[in-house]
From TrEMBL:
Domain named GAF: residues: 51-154
Name the UniProt record assigns to this protein: GAF domain-containing protein
Organism field: Anoxybacteroides tepidamans
PROSITE patterns according to UniProt: UPF0067
InterPro entries: FRMsr_CS, GAF, GAF-like_dom_sf, Phosphatase_reg/MetRdx
């Protein structure tokens, strides 16, 4: 059974706690879509100052919308396009302090000002990305990147 936990520690301690919550949520569950749905809900509850959090799943050379929390979103994004497609193509996290300065940014939600996208890599292949948007600039930093990459590693290990 999942119980909401209050996050009163340092940012690092809080991220460690949310990663433990993720492990508990997905323990024994083999359905990846179900795990992504709970993961997006968990991050939506945990992270402050965000307006969209969710996953895109690789299908050929494009990303297709998966489980998320937020307003309706772009359904398909080609590899190499926008922040999500760039992270997928390059297989590395994209931390964007101001989306309006990112060449080729795809504006699914006009309120988004900053974004972080973490690729999900299994056996050297991108299987999807974690995408998080914020309505404020400079929302994400190195701490977010480090712990969100750990969060994604836990998810990918469940596949």
């Amino acid at each position: 059974m999942f119980h909401a936990i209050s996050y009163n520690g340092t940012r690092e301690e809080n991220y460690e706690l949310v990663i433990k919550q993720l492990q508990a949520l997905i323990d024994g569950e083999t359905n990846f879509i179900a795990n992504l749905a709970n993961a997006s809900a968990l991050l939506n509850q945990f992270l402050k100052n965000i307006n969209w959090v969710g996953f895109y799943l690789a299908e050929g050379e494009q990303l297709v919308l998966g489980p998320f929390q937020g307003l309706p979103a772009c359904v398909r994004i080609p590899f190499g396009k926008g922040v999500c497609g760039t992270a997928a193509k390059n297989q590395k996290t994209e931390l964007v302090p101001d989306v309006h300065l990112f060449p080729g940014h795809i504006a699914c939600d006009a309120a988004s000002q900053s974004e972080i996208v973490v690729p999900m890599i299994k056996n050297g292949n991108v299987i999807g990305v974690l995408d998080i948007d914020s309505p404020i600039k400079n929302r994400f930093d190195d701490i977010d990147q480090r712990y969100l990459e750990k969060f994604v590693e836990v998810l990918v290990a469940s596949v």
